[in-house]
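Recall the central idea of this unit: under ordinary conditions, the amino acid sequence of a chain determines the structure it adopts. In this exercise we apply that idea directly, starting from the sequence alone.
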Amino acid sequence: MVSDTYEGFPGAVAVSRLSVYDWPTVDGHPGGGTPHLHLACTEGYVVTSGRGSVQTLTTSGYREDPLAAGSVVWFTPGTIHRLVNEDALRITVVMQNGGLPEAGDAVLTLPPGLLTDPATYAEAVRIPAGGTEEERAEAARRRRDLATHRFLALREAGAQGDPAPLAAFQRAAAALVRPQLDAWQERLRNGAEAATRASGTQLAALREGNAEHLSRARVTASGPTARGRFGMCGRLDVYTDA
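Accordingly, the structure predicted from this sequence is:
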């Protein structure tokens, strides 16, 4: 029987609060995140404070969108994106298919030699669970700078009319996540597909004059389950329950 209620966060999306890294970047910005793309998730930014921009690279070319409090921008899978922090940039991130990004739906723009297989890639992006705060920060900064160099090279190749490097990166990213696709399918089935099925069941009931699902209404409140986690683009407050 299809449930007429989905109790997860609306639309099965995930939300987090992001403070973009303020470490100076290799190309002279006051701060910035790690360039990467998502394979199966659209991502949205709702800027709450500060100032900066999001740089994006697709097969259609490069663009840069300014960000300030009140800005909203989103982009579909395959968009390489990089946040630039000019002044204390803070963002609420909304991510399609909650759970998939945490399950590996993101690939950093690392050099080709680090994208050859899942184990090599995992070691390259690993933030040590132990050690000091400074050691974890150094690992996050090191992988960010490495990915930024490749991003800049991909951007330059595109500007010169050479699409081959970007296409090669896209193929490598797709190959890296292939072993995870069965698990992703299950997350989708229990998340976004379940939410859609529940809405369809509710509409069908209402069409028949049946409002029984309204009697089962409930409220869920949640706070961050992790604060200040080293993410790809900055320090994250994570809402796992969402």
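The first strand starts at residue 14 and ends at 20.
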